[in-house]
Write a structure and sequence with these properties.
Strand content: over 45%
Helix content: 10-25%
Number of strands: 8
Structural class: mainly beta
Shape: globular
Order of helices and strands: EHHEEEEEEHEH
Length: 180
């Protein structure tokens, strides 16, 4: 695709609980026997953009705790721009040029960018930059495929620099605000 732009989107994904998974019927035997297509597709896009979006990612049945609750993340005002997206088989390249969003705790990312690369050999985040009202984080991270399997011998490299504002910490983790 040359360009994909979406204006206005509300999505929610709730991870299934063990009880929910237990109620699912088993896959038909024929589904397990069906061979996968062996031809790899290549998907490219010169420009992907999203505007005016809201998204929730949560554990089903979870009640959001105060602050940044990783069991219930809900963002509004999501906007992003990706240039030169590439995917072929297990190779994925996502040059995120711009991202903004506000999490329900009040923490607002005013700008973020990164060059994300993933393959069956490695994963990396190059030139990661995250900016909020008072904080900034920059980083370069890389890991070999063994890291994705949580292997003890995995090679992982992280170089980061951060300036974190007390107000951002208080919004994300209100229980420790009094110690700042």
């Amino acid at each position: 695709a040359k360009k994909l732009l979406v204006d206005g989107l509300d999505v929610a994904y709730f991870t299934p609980t063990e009880q929910m998974l237990a109620t699912l019927p088993p896959l038909p035997e024929t589904a397990a026997e069906t061979p996968y297509d062996t031809v790899q597709w290549t998907v490219t896009a010169s420009e992907i953009g999203l505007r005016n979006a809201n998204a929730t990612y949560a554990i089903a049945g979870s009640v959001p705790a105060k602050g940044l609750d990783f069991n219930h993340i809900s963002c509004t005002g999501i906007e992003f721009d990706i240039a030169d997206f590439y995917n072929r088989g297990t190779s994925v390249i996502v040059p995120l040029k711009h991202l903004t969003a506000t999490e329900r705790c009040g923490l607002t990312v005013s700008d973020a960018s990164v060059l994300f690369k993933f393959s069956n050999e490695s994963i990396s985040c190059d030139s990661l930059q995250i900016v909020t009202t008072g904080s900034s984080v920059t980083a370069n991270m890389a890991a070999d495929a063994e890291a994705l399997e949580l292997a003890d011998a995995a090679a992982i490299s992280i170089k980061a620099n951060a300036v974190i504002a007390p107000d951002d910490i208080s919004m994300a983790f209100p229980d420790i605000a009094r110690y700042l």
